[in-house]
Design a protein that fits this description.
By secondary structure, the chain is α/β, with parallel strands linked by helices. Helix content is 39%, strand content 20%. It has a single domain, classed as Alpha/Beta hydrolase fold, catalytic domain (Rossmann fold, 3-Layer(aba) Sandwich), CATH 3.40.50.1820.
Length: 285
């Protein structure tokens, strides 16, 4: 099991699950409205060969809410850089999922001298503003309003949503995204206002600017869901294919490996495969 570690950066206390290990350091960054437990199935596999820690990003999991309300990439990337320094991670590999992949890309572009490599799982292609106006993104991608939902009701919702994939382990990971109140209801750690600030930063992110600046080796692991694809899946897959072509053209050190029959949250679905891909990438550096 990991060790709870807390680091304070500019009066912001950040939490990590420290999985130990030795060798090449790897920092794991979760996606939007997730938490460090998201990596619970992948991290122990990586820790067999590498030095591994998983970060609760600001206002997620057990980390503090940003008192200044700043959720732009400059602030979030400074968190990652500060955490790596605090852990004495020299030239770490930053592994990110979804929003975490966008963070990993930004870190590589902003601090090229400090990063050994980046691995981006179903993310890092940015360019959301090429296909959606902000008004459309704001409407389509706003999170469900779950504050005040009784815990038992939420558990049943998750059970129905996951169908045969439900387990106590998976529910514990998902519950890490919420505070359980004294009255037995839940509330997201990430407030709606802050969620949308992060979404706005992602919408504004410009891949054409970032890719040439990210000089370290990079691995993209985009996911292809099992067929049949609904309209949303098809649109998202088309967007990812466009992004992959752009990344390949502008990042000479990038390689792209598509994960077939894989859901967006592939680290939960296929942890062995994800760990294998990351380990092979790390060993190639």
């Amino acid at each position: 099991m990991p060790t709870d570690t807390f680091l304070t950066l500019d009066n912001l206390r950040l939490h990590l699950n420290d999985w130990g290990g030795s060798g090449q350091p790897i920092l794991l960054a979760h996606g939007l409205a997730s938490n460090a437990k998201f990596w619970n199935r992948v991290a122990p596999l990586l820790a067999e060969s590498f030095r591994v820690a998983a970060l609760d990003q600001r206002s997620h999991g057990l980390s503090d809410e940003a008192r200044d309300g700043d959720y732009g990439f400059a602030a979030v990337c400074a968190d990652v850089r500060g955490v790596c320094d605090g852990l004495h991670f020299a030239k770490p590999i930053i592994v990110g999922h979804s929003w975490g992949a966008a963070v990993a890309l930004e870190v590589a572009a902003r601090y090229p001298e400090a990063v050994g490599g980046v691995a981006m799982i179903d993310g890092g292609f940015a360019g959301m503003n090429r296909r959606l106006t902000w008004a459309e993104a704001e409407q389509r991608l706003a999170p469900p309003r779950l504050a005040g939902t009784p815990l038992a009701e939420f558990r049943e919702r998750v059970r129905r949503g996951l169908d045969g994939d439900f387990s106590h382990e998976i529910f514990d990971i998902i519950l890490g995204n919420f505070e359980v109140r004294a009255d037995g209801t839940i509330a997201p750690h990430l407030a709606l206002e802050n969620h949308m600030k992060i979404m706005r930063a992602m919408w504004e992110q410009n891949p054409e600017r970032l890719y040439p600046l990210a000089q370290c080796p990079a691995l993209f692991l985009p996911c292809i869901p099992a067929e049949p694809h609904d309209e949303m899946d098809a649109q998202y897959l088309s967007f990812k294919r466009e992004g992959a072509a752009l990344a390949q053209a502008l990042m000479p050190n990038a390689r792209i490996e598509w994960l077939a029959d894989s859901i967006h949250d592939v680290p939960l679905q296929r942890p062995g495969l994800v760990a294998e891909k990351i380990a092979a990438f790390a060993e190639s550096l």
